[in-house]
Amino acid sequence: HPWETVLYGCTWPYGKPGFQTELLVPSDRFDSISGGVDHGISAAIVNNVDYGNAFVGHYNAGDIQYANHASIDNNNLIYWKETKNFANGCSAHITGGYYAKGNMALPDQGTFIIEDTTFGDDVILEANHHCNVGTTGVLCMPQYVLHNVKWKNKNSGKWIWFQGMNFQEHNANQNHGGIFTLSPTAIADITHGQANKDEMIFPSGYVSLVSSKFTYLLSLPNNVCILSAIEYGTRYDGGILCKVPLRALKIYTRDITSGSAPSLHIDVWANSLGVHGQIGDADASQDIFFHQIGRDGTSRKQGFSFPVIPGQTYSYYVSLNTGDKVIPNSWVIEFSDPVMGNRWGAEQIQLAVEGRDCGIDGLVSSQHDRRFLWSGDEYIDDSAWGNHGACVSNSSPPPDMPTIDCSSNQGLIGPTECPDLCPVECDNTNSFCHCGTATCQCKPGFSGIDCSVDLCAAARCSEHGKCAARYLGSSSILPVTNSDSACICDVGWSGPLCDSNPCAVQGRDCLGHGTCHAASERDTVCICDEGYSGENCEATCDGYCQGNGGVYPYSCATNIEGVVAYQCGPTGGCAYQTDPAATGPGGFCTYKSVKVNNDCECSTDSDCM
C-alpha cells in the first residue's frame, strides 16, 4: 500500500531456519530444535526511506535489522509488537537510522538495541507497544539500549511514554514496564567527559529511565534515582530517572490465574556486601504484582518482572507473598540478556531467591542459560520448566550460553546472500549472489554486465553529502557525470558537491530556538522549534497563553489536517486557522504555523530530495 511499509514474517528460533510468513507453523515443533538454541537467520532491511506513511514495520518479528533507515513524518516511524534477539548474538535492531516527526512504537520481550542513530524533532519513544492488548506481548519488560544515539529533538513536550491503560477483564496487567538505558560504552563516555551533552536524551548525570511504578528505586541511598516529574515535567512521562544502568529481571510462571495469583516481594541492600550482607532491614522494598497476557486460559504468557541494578553495590532478595515464600523450582528466571555480554562484557546481579540456588555468592551472569526459553507464540518449551534459566536448583545446572565475539562487525548485517548457490564466485566489492535467482546481482551504486561500472566514481560528494546512486538500487543508472544530481546533501548543506553551508557563512543560529536550513547556495531559512515562530524564531507564546501551565502546546492541538495556523489565548482557549490570510481572534498568539506550499526551490538538483 502507498500508505504503509509493512514487513510480514519473522525469524524466531524454529526447527527449520529461515523466514516464515506466520509466527509458527503447525509442523514446526520444539522437538526439532537441536539443543534448544536459536535457529533464526539474521537479515537486514538496508537504506529504506519512509515518508508520510501510516505504519512502518510489522507485528511480531525477530532477526530483522533496520540499517540506514530514514523514517520521517509517519504516524508510526516504527511499528513493532514483539521481538527477540538476533541469532548471531550481536546485532542491533536499528542502526545508522534517522527518525523525525512521529511515534516510535517499540516492541516487548527482546533486548532492543538502537545504535548510531539520530532522532530529530517531534519524536516520541513508546515502550511496549500493544503489550497485553489481546494476547500481544510477554512480561512487558524489554531493555531498550541506546548506543551512540544523538537526540536532537527540541520539542518541549513528551519524549518517552509508558503504557498505562488496561485492556483486559482482569487487573493482572503490569504493562507499564520497559527500560530505557544507555549502553555501557555511552555511560563510560559520559563518565570521562567525552559525550556531547546537547545530544543526550537524558539530563546530565542520568543514564536510565523506567516507569514511576517501580518506587523501590526512589528509596535507594544517595538519591541514585529520582522522580522525573519533579524537575522535568511530562518529558519522561513522570518516570524514574537513574544515575545507574538498569536491567530486566523476569520470572516466568505457569498455571496461575489472575484472580488467585500471589504478589512477588523484593528487598534490596546497597552495602556492597553481596547476598551475605543481607542482614537487618533492607534499604528498599516493593511488592511486584502478577502479570498475565490475555484472559484466563487464553495465553500461557505470565509472570513477574522489574528493573534491577547490575554490579557489586546492590544485592536482591526475591520471595513470594505466601506462607512459605518459596519461588517454585519449575518457574524460569531470566536476568538481562547475552547480547549485553557479547557486545560490552558480561554483567552480573547479586541475587538470592527463596527456595532456589543462585550459585556461588548469588552471582547471576547476563550470559546464563536460556535454552528453550522463547519461541514466539509457543512461549516456553515444556523441557525448560525447572531445567533452564538462572538459579536452577538441580544437581546439574545448565552451562552459560556460548560466548560470541562481536568485535569484527559489531552486529552489522550485510545484504542477504547465498554464495553457495551461484555457479561462479561474485565480486564482493560490487555484487552479491542473489538467493532467489542464484545469479550475481549488482550492489546499489554499481551497474553493467559484470557490475564493474561504479556509478559514484565521478560524484565527488563532500563529507556532507551522499552519492544518490548508493540509495537507488542496482537497477538505477544515475547519470552521475551530471554533478548537479549526483549528491544528496545533509541538512544545512547545499551545492553540487554538498560543500556549501550558507548557515555557517551567515552565522545564523535562529536565536537558539530553531535550526537553520539551506534554502539554496546563498539563502537560508529557520525551522523553528515547537512553541516558537517568526523569521528568526524570535516569537513564543510561553508565559502568554495559560493552558498547560503556560508552556507548549498550551492544552491545544498540534497536528490537524488542513490547519495552517495554531493559536492560543491568554486566558485559555484555542483557535485553528485553515485560511492563510486569517488573523484569528484578537489577542491570540500563534504557537505553530504550517507552510501551505512545501515545495522547495532548488538552484541545483542536489538541494532537494
Automatic annotation (TrEMBL):
Matches recorded under InterPro entries: EGF, MEGF/SIB
Gene3D superfamilies according to UniProt: Laminin
Domain of life: Eukaryota
Keywords assigned by UniProt, alphabetized: Disulfide bond, EGF-like domain
Disulfide-bonded cysteines: 528-537
The keyword Disulfide bond belongs to this UniProt entry's keyword annotation: yes
Domain EGF-like: 499-538
Pfam families: EGF
The name this protein goes by in its record: EGF-like domain-containing protein
